[in-house]
């Protein structure tokens, strides 16, 4: 598995699990841990209700809420006040879980101590599903996962009843895998997205239920999903989790036809999970079929850089073929978008001397070859990443093949020195602008 593709997500998961995601503010909440399914299970009370107002409760001391949420940004972000606990009041319309009389009022500790007027407009006087649970400090009700624990029709593709029915089934234990797959409609609603999160992130819960037919349905849905959507991202990941028959062909088709970063990166992760060696060979062989299709070429180069074939793991030939493919693009005559992707791949492939001369040529001829600042900067970063690992008695060191060249260049080109110096220290964390205009 490619460490670069998984380290960030793994670290974030660990942090969220350790800190207790349900108690965090919205900016720290990951949607995969606050799905409708997870919120329903974690809640003591789930109701369809209208936020009617907020009320201030006078306290004799500062209070934990004022301390936790001191007023910020005119109270629109958070608005704790000393000696005050601000409560929200819900007018209950339906009870989905818990012992609460319909038509009654429910009080909860106001989210981030917000005043009514500073709640999101979608929650002001609008019917929503609210997920509530007592907090350990004083057993007062709070909204789980900040305002992600309040679902309005706006977040349910305009039909709150769809989300209500789903939550009701969840409470009754009737949300089977088939029910979840049926709920994925690609309209961007909360239930549709959350079912995809469940499939990809909580695969251990659903794995035993996944049949051959379910696997084929997941593949078909991934192929039919809108480009760049949450559903596509999570269904691609789900293919890598469950590895249904035909996964390699399906993922390769998605990666080669959709050059968006999310599809390529997640698709590569899933390809590695399904069959890393076969994926590398398919990508290499597809280059001849790409012709002059720049989008397809970009997808292949980006994918090879992400998967990063290694001699000791994937074979010397796969490594050599990849380096040669990428190296052949390191020319000023290459389309600039494709060139930048090749420079990203050159950096990420952890090359040694294979691309050094081509990269030097790009930099040396920068005044006449038509390259812009983005390409020159990318070439410098890729050249700084060309290094040899040396094992010594004191540990592992890295020797930069072109260190003297880069240091001499920095001495005579002050503007380039601003790139060269950090690149020599941390080339793999420096961003190179890709074909999508984003830093990678």
Provide an overview of this structure.
The strands form two sheets. Strands 1, 2, 3, 4, 5 and 6 form a six-stranded antiparallel beta sheet that branches. A two-stranded antiparallel ribbon has the order 7-8. It is globular and about 75 Å long. It has 440 residues and is of the alpha+beta class. The protein contains 19 helices and eight strands. Among the domains are: 10-169, OB fold (Dihydrolipoamide Acetyltransferase, E2P) (Beta Barrel), CATH 2.40.50.120; 333-440, no CATH class. Helices cover 49% and strands 13% of the residues. A hairpin with a 6-residue loop joins strand 4 (127-134) and strand 5 (141-143).
Give a summary of the structure in a few sentences.
By secondary structure, the protein is an alpha+beta fold. It has 19 helices and 8 strands. It is globular.
Our measurement of the CA-to-CA distance between the termini, rounded to an integer number of angstroms, reads 19 Å
Named CATH architecture of the domain at 10-169: Beta Barrel
Number of strands: 8
Largest sheet: 6 strands, antiparallel
Overall pLDDT level: 91
Instruction: List low-pLDDT spans.
Output: 1-25
- Principal-axis shape equals globular
Report the CATH topology name of the domain at 10-169.
Answer: OB fold (Dihydrolipoamide Acetyltransferase, E2P)
**What fraction strand?**
5-15%
Rg over C-alpha atoms, rounded to the nearest angstrom: 27 Å
Q: Classify the helix fraction into a percent range.
A: 40-55%
Query: What are the secondary-structure elements, in order, as H or E?
Result: HHEHEEEEEHHHHHHHHHHHHHHEEHH
Total helices: the number is 19
Structural class: alpha+beta
């Amino acid at each position: 598995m490619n460490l670069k593709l998984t380290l960030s997500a793994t670290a974030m998961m660990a942090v969220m699990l350790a800190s207790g995601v349900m108690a965090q503010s919205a900016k720290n909440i990951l949607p995969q841990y606050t799905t409708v399914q997870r919120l329903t299970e974690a809640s003591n009370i789930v109701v369809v209700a209208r936020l009617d107002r907020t009320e201030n409760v006078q306290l004799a001391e500062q209070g934990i809420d004022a301390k936790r949420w001191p007023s910020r940004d005119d109270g629109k972000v958070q608005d704790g006040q000393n000696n005050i606990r601000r409560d929200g009041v819900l007018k209950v319309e339906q009870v989905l879980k818990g012992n609460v009389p319909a038509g009654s009022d429910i009080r909860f500790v106001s989210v981030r101590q917000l005043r009514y007027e500073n709640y999101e407009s979608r929650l002001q006087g609008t019917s929503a599903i609210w997920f509530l649970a007592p907090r350990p400090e004083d057993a007062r009700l709070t909204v789980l996962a900040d305002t992600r624990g309040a679902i309005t029709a706006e977040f349910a593709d305009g039909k709150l009843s769809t989300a209500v029915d789903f939550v009701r089934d969840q409470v009754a234990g009737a949300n089977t895998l088939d029910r979840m797959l049926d709920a994925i409609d690609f309209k961007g609603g909360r239930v549709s997205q959350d079912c995809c999160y469940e499939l990809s992130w909580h695969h251990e819960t659903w794995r035993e239920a996944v049949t051959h037919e379910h696997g084929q349905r997941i593949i078909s849905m991934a192929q039919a999903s809108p480009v760049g959507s949450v559903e596509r991202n999570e269904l691609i990941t789900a293919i890598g989790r469950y590895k249904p028959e035909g996964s390699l062909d399906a993922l390769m088709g998605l990666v080669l036809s959709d050059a968006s970063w999310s599809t390529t990166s997640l698709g590569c992760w899933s390809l590695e999970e399904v069959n890393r060696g076969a994926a590398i060979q398919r990508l290499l062989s597809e280059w001849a079929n790409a012709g002059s299709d720049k989008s397809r070429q970009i997808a292949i180069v980006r994918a090879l850089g992400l998967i990063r074939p290694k001699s000791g793991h994937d074979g010397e030939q796969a490594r050599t073929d990849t380096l040669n493919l990428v190296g052949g693009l390191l020319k000023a005559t290459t389309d600039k978008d494709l060139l930048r992707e090749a420079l990203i791949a050159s950096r990420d492939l952890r090359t040694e001397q294979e691309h050094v001369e081509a990269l030097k040529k790009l930099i040396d001829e920068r005044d006449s070859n038509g390259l812009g600042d983005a390409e020159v900067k990318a070439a410098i970063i890729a050249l700084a990443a060309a290094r040899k690992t040396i094992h010594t008695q004191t540990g592992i060191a890295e020797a930069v093949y072109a260190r003297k060249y880069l240091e001499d260049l920095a001495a005579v080109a002050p503007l380039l020195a601003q790139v060269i110096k950090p690149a020599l220290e941390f080339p793999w964390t420096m961003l190179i602008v890709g074909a999508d205009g984003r830093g990678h």
